[in-house]
Write a structure and sequence with these properties.
Blueprint (H helix, E strand, L loop, with lengths): L1 H13 L1 E5 L13 E6 L4 E3 L6 E4 L8 E5 L6 E8 L4 E5 L2 E4 L2 E2 L2 E2 L11 H6 L1 E7 L2 E7 L9 E5 L4 E5 L9 H4 L2 E2 L3 E13 L5 E2 L6 E2 L2
Antiparallel strand pairs: 1-2, 2-16, 3-4, 5-6, 5-16, 6-14, 7-8, 7-13, 8-9, 10-11, 11-12, 14-15, 16-17, 16-18
């Protein structure tokens, strides 16, 4: 009990944590059933069990995968930072326009698709999206109703615009608005373990101890 109260809880609250992902909003980068490692000192140091910052050394950058609290209902979310304070963000048919310029898209690296089911691949369009010189995977699902066009909106100071990599199956800043800086509690760095919750919790060994980008 002493160990849990004075070691485990403070460490999970302020330094490092893990987060099970139950939904596909970050497919194909993060899959349902991934247990991700959350670096809680990526940007600052918080007092345990609070949102009070003891020190701050950096802020989220475009492309970072962050853990944050939804301004809608306080749910803990995993999303990608798209818009920084002062940025103008727009979507046109699932194509991202940032500060009035369309971002680049290219063919997806096969490593992102190897853990997707055949059914997912069949109904999805996959690509790599480039933000500030770094590419990450995104997907769309044309067969389902979704908000594929949005904005333009300008991100206010002290806030961020976040999206899921699965653009057609994510509740994100298009729906609940901007995420305040204080609501961002860490950066997702990697996958610890992964189990296919849609197929009898079969382990996805190739995803164990994998990095996230």
């Amino acid at each position: 009990i002493f160990l849990i109260i004075f070691v485990v809880i403070p460490v999970k609250s302020s330094l490092a944590d893990w987060n099970w992902v139950p939904t596909g909003s970050m497919n194909p980068t993060i899959l349902e059933g991934d247990l991700i490692y959350v670096d809680k000192i990526a940007y600052d140091l918080r007092f345990p069990l609070t949102l009070h910052r003891l020190a701050r050394w950096s802020d989220p950058e475009r492309g970072d995968i962050v853990v944050c609290f939804s301004p809608e209902d306080g749910t803990r979310l995993v999303k990608r930072v798209i818009g920084l304070p002062g940025d103008t963000v727009e979507l046109k048919n699932d194509r991202l326009i940032l500060n009035r310029r369309g971002v680049g898209y290219g063919l997806i690296d096969p490593r992102y698709t190897r853990s997707l089911s055949a059914g997912q691949k069949e109904i999805s369009i996959l690509a790599e999206e480039e933000l500030d010189g770094a590419a990450h995977a995104v997907m769309s699902m044309p067969s389902i109703p979704a908000m594929r066009s949005f904005g333009p909106v300008t991100v206010p100071q002290g806030s961020y615009f976040v999206l899921g990599d699965n653009r057609d199956n994510s509740r994100d800043s298009r729906f609940f608005g901007f995420v305040e800086r204080n609501a961002i509690v860490g950066r997702a760095r990697g996958v610890i373990v992964s189990f296919d919750i849609k197929d009898k919790y079969q382990p996805r060994f190739k995803r164990f101890l994998g990095s996230l980008d």
